[in-house]
Amino acid sequence: MIAVIIAASLLIGVSLGILGGGGSILTVPILVYLAGMETKEAIATSLFVVGVTSAAGVVSHARAGRVRWRTGLLFGLAGMTGAYAGGRLAEFIPGTVLLIAFALMMIATAVAMIRGRRQAPKKVHHELPVLHVLLDGIVVGLVTGLVGAGGGFLVVPALALLGGLPMTVAVGTSLLVIAMKSFAGLAGYLASVHIDWGFAALVTATAVVGSVLGGLVAGRIPQDALRKSFGWFVAVMGVFVLSQQISTDLRHTLLTSPWTWASVAAAAGIAFSWYMLRRSGRTPEQTSDAPAMPDNGSPDRLATRP
User: Fold this and answer.
1) For 267-287, how does the pLDDT look when each residue is reduced to its tens digit (9 = 90+)?
2) Alpha-carbon dihedral sign for residues 212, 215, 221, 225
3) Which of 71, 61, 58, 220 is nearest to 160 (CA)?
4) What predicted TM-score, i.e. pTM, was given to this entire model?
5) Burial of 54 from C-beta contacts in 10 A (0-12 / 13-18 / 19+)
6) pLDDT for 224-253, tens place per residue?
């Protein structure tokens, strides 16, 4: 089992190295279902693993000039406040509720990854919108502190849109923000959760190696295809985690009910039809039966002169 956990830890680091996020999305399920940790212990350990791995990843990005320190520190300080508050608040929330919230965060993240960014920001901010960055940092930090997730895939778009940063710079700067928020959230958890530091160090060291490997191959992999593939993987993981928190009786009822499968078939049909319409470049209005206008060269336009 240790070998499987080490291999999974490499995947955590590779995700951070290539995408600048996704570490917590993988770490918590690995620690809960492979290592057998309690939910809150797994979240706290995840914050340590991702924090150290992200801090290690900042070094290579900083050397390449892909870290905007002022923006990152400002966003990170605001995120630390929210993350610490979330870590302390988690003490009063049942572990099952935290895992359900985590699974929903995974599914939302997967949808965002699969859809991607529709278009690049039209305006680059030359002056940092401080109030927006602070508010965004606190909200993202609160989510990170509560469920140990929502780091890179929330921070990168915020830095790109609010700070007007190029995507490569946003990824590098996000690692700085993730490290700061993770350590703040960990501080909030340490008041009520015990961590196996030896095991955490093993997972962290492996993840750091994975982040180095991910950074080396990042430029050789088509980012769009990688993002979508990883998004589907996260979606499957999120559905799995969510299903594990549903009671056995309710799960059996849902799986055996004809209404469940009818709803799934209907949703699949709608999604497929929508996809085909988008792919063909048509909208439902364009597919309606509208009378065709005659072309300029049609016989109707070639009237006989009097």
Assistant:
1) 777 777 776 776 665 444 444
2) positive
3) 71
4) 0.65
5) buried
6) 766 677 678 778 877 877 777 776 555 566
